[in-house]
Design goal:
4 helices; rod-shaped; mainly alpha
Length: 119
């Protein structure tokens, strides 16, 4: 079977690419083509990097903020206040140490007068 020569020639978009390569050789010469290709590759890499960074920043901005984790000290203070309230101790305007001392005193009285000390 004989293949017509016209079927081997590029057509459509292939013809455009071949024409661009020929024009590039004529304008810049074979020595400049690798430099141009390298520059195009670097530009593409930079563009991709900037696109990924902008997508990352956009996703961070659009995500709802994560709830702040309460500090362990706050949880301990809340537990201390709850214990004091259950024991019938007034908690308003008192420091943590005052609450601890009153809780120890109340527990000491409840245990029959035995001394309890804070660590």
């Amino acid at each position: 079977m004989v293949i017509p020569i016209l079927q081997l020639l590029p057509s459509g978009s292939e013809l455009i690419i071949v024409a661009i390569i020929i024009v590039a050789f004529l304008i810049w010469g074979p020595a400049k083509i690798p430099q141009l290709a390298r520059a195009l590759g670097e530009a593409r890499r930079e563009f991709s990097k900037a696109s990924k960074e902008s997508e990352h920043l956009a996703s961070e901005i659009l995500q709802p903020p994560k709830p702040a984790q309460p500090s362990p000290q706050l949880n301990e203070d809340q537990a201390l206040i709850e214990i004091a309230r259950k024991l019938g101790i007034e908690v308003e305007g008192k420091t943590r140490n005052q609450l601890l001392n009153e809780i120890l005193q109340t527990l000491s009285k409840a245990m029959g007068g035995k001394s309890a000390s804070a660590a």
